[in-house]
DNA sequence: AAGCATTGCAACCGCGATCCA
DNA sequence: TTGGATCGCGGTTGCAATGCT
């Protein structure tokens, strides 16, 4: 038996709320207060589900709901907090005055998630093959269809203030990101590096080379040509995934196992490689793990929900693949294997030695150690970003830490 | 001008958490 | 302690709005 419905659905109205319904709901709640959502529609004379009434009130009718566009400050806060907290929209919304979880969630899904990461592949012949830069996101190639409202507003703003962006102003990476993201054309995913990003790219190169020295796989060619999987795996972002997907799918030696809809690729007969794609915080992720282990099959059964918490840049060093269970929410593997993990909003710092943290699944679950989520939050706090964003969210960081501790 | 493609947002849905008798 | 009722959250869907061809 399933649970009882929250309300009698027969005869209830669905879809958009009319102004009359809004007025009715508002007047009733103003007179009687919030709560008792189940009985509210009947008492108020609304042919709506109680849940629908609650949602309408919380997301739209409440007096303290903030209208208008998400500001850049709010956007930065969202990004930072999402990096640490994952899809905990209500928690994030709690740090943004007047914003609802639904609004934050929608904004994330429609604006932020697809432009936070991308992959670059220099045309040069030398490795490293993969270069990632936070600011290289882009909405991809020129698209058809409606320009985003944000872009329209931006265009309007730019038209009104045509000189504002032509004065060699140094853009923050996010600004660059935003500028690049809206409907600009690109070629094969390659974008000329912005001056501001060159150092970051160098860091990426150095760090990725460092990881390669650690024996981790860094080179897509290695994957495509050698199909050799070292003892480690690497989660990449959506851009990496796309690139790898293209290359691997174009390879004769590769086959999809039919679970591609779930995001699982491989294992393939005769190959040593398995890949697990997972939706990640910033869109997509790729987890590369050795085939023949239990992780792949487990993930198939469980719908590849691992790593959906949204952490970015997880690096595995376990040879047996320990990460089959959900991370971040207590559902850790209990097989007691240990490894290393890292989380960051940028893969650049992902491979810095100092950022490597030894973890132990058992410890995460039951020991006094910080949970994964906590580690992430702390890593964010430790990662003293002296930039504007970092300053701006200091207070939010404190609140986030408090919220996390309380939770 | 019409149809198509795409976006963004409001709303719905299912489920876990919490409350309470 | 138990189980039903309710709340709250996050994922997903539907559709109006809008730009492009």
UniProtKB/TrEMBL annotation:
Cellular component, GO annotation: nucleus
InterPro entries per UniProt: Homeodomain-like_sf (IPR009057), Myb_dom (IPR017930), Myb_TF_plants (IPR015495), SANT/Myb (IPR001005)
Subcellular location: Nucleus
Region called Disordered, residue ranges: 140-191, 298-340
Alphabetic keyword roster: DNA-binding, Nucleus, Transcription, Transcription regulation
Gene3D superfamilies attached to this UniProt entry: Homeodomain-like
Primary residence: nucleus
Domain HTH myb-type: 9-61, 62-116
Biased composition (Low complexity): 157-174
Molecular function (Gene Ontology), one example: DNA binding
Residue ranges, compositional bias (Basic residues): 141-156
Domain Myb-like span(s) in chain numbering: 9-61, 62-112
CDD domains: SANT
PANTHER family: MYB-RELATED PROTEIN P (PTHR47999:SF6), TRANSCRIPTION FACTOR MYB8-RELATED-RELATED (PTHR47999)
UniProt name for this protein: Uncharacterized protein
């Amino acid at each position: 038996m399933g649970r009882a419905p929250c309300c009698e659905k027969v005869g209830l109205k669905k879809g958009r709320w009319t102004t009359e319904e809004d007025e009715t709901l508002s007047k009733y709640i103003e007179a009687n207060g919030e709560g008792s959502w189940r009985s509210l529609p009947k008492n108020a004379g609304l042919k709506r589900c109680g849940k629908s009434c609650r949602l309408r009130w919380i997301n739209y009718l409440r007096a303290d709901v903030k209208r208008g566009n998400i500001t850049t400050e709010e956007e930065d806060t969202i990004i930072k907090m999402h990096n640490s907290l994952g899809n905990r929209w209500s928690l994030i919304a709690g740090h943004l005055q007047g914003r609802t979880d639904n609004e934050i969630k929608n904004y994330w899904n429609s604006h932020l998630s697809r432009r936070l990461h991308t992959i670059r592949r220099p045309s040069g012949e030398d490795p490293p093959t993969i270069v990632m830069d936070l600011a290289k996101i882009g909405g991809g190639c020129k698209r058809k269809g409606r320009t985003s409202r944000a872009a329209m507003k931006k265009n309007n703003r730019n038209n009104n203030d045509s000189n504002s962006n032509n004065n060699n102003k140094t853009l923050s990476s996010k600004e660059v990101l935003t500028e690049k993201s809206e409907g600009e054309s690109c070629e094969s995913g390659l974008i000329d590096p912005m001056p501001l990003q060159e150092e970051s790219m160098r860091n990426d190169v150095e760090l990725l080379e460092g990881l390669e020295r650690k024996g981790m796989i860094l080179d897509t060619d290695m994957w495509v040509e050698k199909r050799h999987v070292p003892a480690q795996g690497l989660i990449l972002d959506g851009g990496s995934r796309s690139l790898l997907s293209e290359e691997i799918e174009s390879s004769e030696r590769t086959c999809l196992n039919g679970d591609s809809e779930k995001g699982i690729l491989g294992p393939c007969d005769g190959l040593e490689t398995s890949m697990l794609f997972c939706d990640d915080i910033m869109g997509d992720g790729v987890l590369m793990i050795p085939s023949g282990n239990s992780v792949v099959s487990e993930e198939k059964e469980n719908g590849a929900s691992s790593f959906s918490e949204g952490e970015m840049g997880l690096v595995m060093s376990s040879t047996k693949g320990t990460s089959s269970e959900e991370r971040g929410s207590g559902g850790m593997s209990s097989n007691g294997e240990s490894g290393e993990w890292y989380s960051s909003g940028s893969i650049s710092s992902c491979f810095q030695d100092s950022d490597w943290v030894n973890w132990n699944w058992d410890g995460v679950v039951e020991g006094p150690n910080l949970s994964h989520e906590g580690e992430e939050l702390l890593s964010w706090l430790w990662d003293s970003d002296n930039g504007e964003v970092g300053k701006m969210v200091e207070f939010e960081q404190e609140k986030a830490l408090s919220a996390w501790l309380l939770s």
